[in-house]
Structure formats: C-alpha cells, structure tokens
Amino acid sequence: MNMKKVIVALLCLGTVLSMVSCKGGAKAAAEEENLPANMAKFESKGFVTYWISDNAEPRMNQASLFGEVPEEIISELGIAEGIPSSMSTFFIKADGKNLLFDTGMGGLLVPSLEAIGVPADKVDAIFFTHLHGDHTGGLVKDGAAVFPNAKIYVSKAEYEGMNGEEVFALYKDNVVLFDFDDELICGVKPIEAIGHTPGHTCYLKGDVLIAGDIMHAVALQIVHPEFSARFDQNPEASVTTRKKIIECAKENHLLLGGMHFPAPGVLDYRQ
Asked: How far is residue 184's CA from residue 168's CA, in Å, rounded to a whole number?
C-alpha cells in the first residue's frame, strides 16, 4: 500500500472511531436510558443532546451524487457500493427547555421524542438549518401543526430565499427570524453556513455544533471536502463552508453533528 493509501486509511479509521467511540459513552448512555435503536445520547456540561435518526432503513448515497469523483478515490475509500448516510434531527434539553433542530420527514421523530418523555406539544423551540423538505417535513401532519407551542427559528436569508412564508404557514405567529450575529434562546448561536441553500445555518450550543447539511457523505467529504453534492445550490460556497465548519469543530474541540451523518450522527472532536 503506498503512502497516500495509508494516510487515507488512517483518516477513514479516525472518522469511524470518532463516531463510534463518542465522549460521554453514547452507546452506554443509550442502553442505560433504554433508548430506541435510532437514537444516541451525548452529555455536555449543563445539557444533553440526542441524535434522532428519522429513517427506518439504512441510507446510502452514491458517489455519483458528488460529481466526477475519480475512481482512485472511490476505490481507496471503499465507497463503490455507496456511502453511509442518514436523515436525522437533533434534540437538546437545556435550561429547562426542549430544543429541536430540524424535523426530518417526521416518520420517527415524534415517537422518538416521546421515548425520552417529550410530547410534541412540549417542544419549546425548533431551529432550522435550512428549508428543504427532508428537514421540514415533520412540521405538519394531516393538515395540523405537529409542534403547536414551538417557536420557529430560521435565518432571514433562508426564510426569504426558500419561501419560508409557505413552509411555515401553520406557524406564522411563532416564527422568529434572525441575523447570523444574533444570540438566540438558551445561548444558542447561529453560524452562517451558506452554500447548500442561501441561508443555511449551523448552530452552536456549548460544545455541540449542529451542522445541518455541510456533508452528505462523511466518508468522502471529511477527506475530500472539495466535492459538493449535486443539490448544493452554490457548490463553491458549500466547499468553503464545509472546510470552515470542520476546522471550527476541530480547533474548538466540539461535538459536530450532521443531519446526514451516519449513525450515531456525530464526529467527536472534544477529546
């Protein structure tokens, strides 16, 4: 094996280990709390974070979704048969508040929240990374608001650029628009992360960074961030954002969570 392959293999191994050996003992915590298989729990100082997978079956993305990825890279990373992914949301319990980040398609979200004692009407706030349907689909069911008491947080740029008025028609009195330099409730800080959409937003709470759709194929993009998904509206900006957010997580020793990261939904740089 040449040196490049050794380096790639080590990087991939590090990615896998950081996801399965998460600080705080995610697996042990999940077993202790008897969480459903589609969930994982992560402890932070003063709050807890839950990853919730909203897809019942495993998801794989094909390398072809990321442009012309050289066959050499596909072979080196072992992704010829697909790249593990997910369709996920995150939930944080902090300061007596129930904070949800995106709503997925809504398939497993509500029963997952109920499994940790949080009925839908007790969700206090929902922070949207962006307004694609696989992130907002859980908002409405049978023509009614699923989270009737939740404040809806979304960046002004995303709301205006992605038809937020229509997306949030049933929540219009609860919508809170923000600029990227605002500080939101419970100390949640929005971070500009445009590229995938015009107002795509990451959120920082303590040592947890919820990164939305900065990566759709972690095994590929953590090693080669220069490859953007076909559905990134601005591929060049997406590359810049991806590099910035990954570097931010590493430099500041953060738990990095992504809506399309494979189980358990995070890369742990806190150690």
From this structure: 19
Running DSSP on this structure, what letter comes out for residue 52? E
- How confident is the model at residue 31, as a pLDDT? 46
Confidence at residue 4, expressed as pLDDT on a 0 to 100 scale: 40
- pLDDT, residue 150, reads 98
Q: Which residues of the chain have pLDDT under 50?
A: 1-31
Provide the total of helices (H) and of strands (E) in the chain, helices listed first: 9, 16
User: For residues 55, 60, 65 and 71, what is the CA-based torsion angle, rounded to 10 degrees?
Assistant: 170
d(CA 175, CA 114): 24
Give, in order, the Cα–Cα distances in Å from 11 to each of 84, 120, 181, 219, 266.
16, 39, 34, 9, 16
pLDDT confidence of residue 9: 41
Q: Report which of 52, 91, 49 is spatially closest to residue 261, judged by C-alpha positions.
A: 52
pLDDT at 34: 85
Q: What is the distance between the alpha carbons of residues 254 and 101, in angstroms, rounded to a whole number?
A: 17
pLDDT per residue as tens digits for the range 35-89: 999 999 999 999 999 999 998 788 899 999 999 999 999 999 999 999 999 999 9
Provide the b/e sequence for 43-66 (b: ≥16 CB within 10 Å). Answer: ebeebbbbbbbbbeeeeebebebb
Between CA 5 and CA 238 the distance in angstroms is 26
H or E segment to which residue 29 belongs:
helix 26-33
Tokens representing 100? 């949800």
Report phi then psi at 39, rounded to 5.
-130, 155
Per DSSP (E only), the strands in 206-269 are: 208-210, 255-257, 266-268
pLDDT of residue 250: 98
Side-by-side strand order, sheet with 189-192 = 189-192, 201-205, 208-210, 255-257, 266-268
Compute the distance between CA of residue 203 and CA of residue 185 in angstroms, rounded to an integer.
Answer: 12
Question: Which among 266, 267, 269 is positioned nearest to 51, based on CA atoms?
Answer: 266
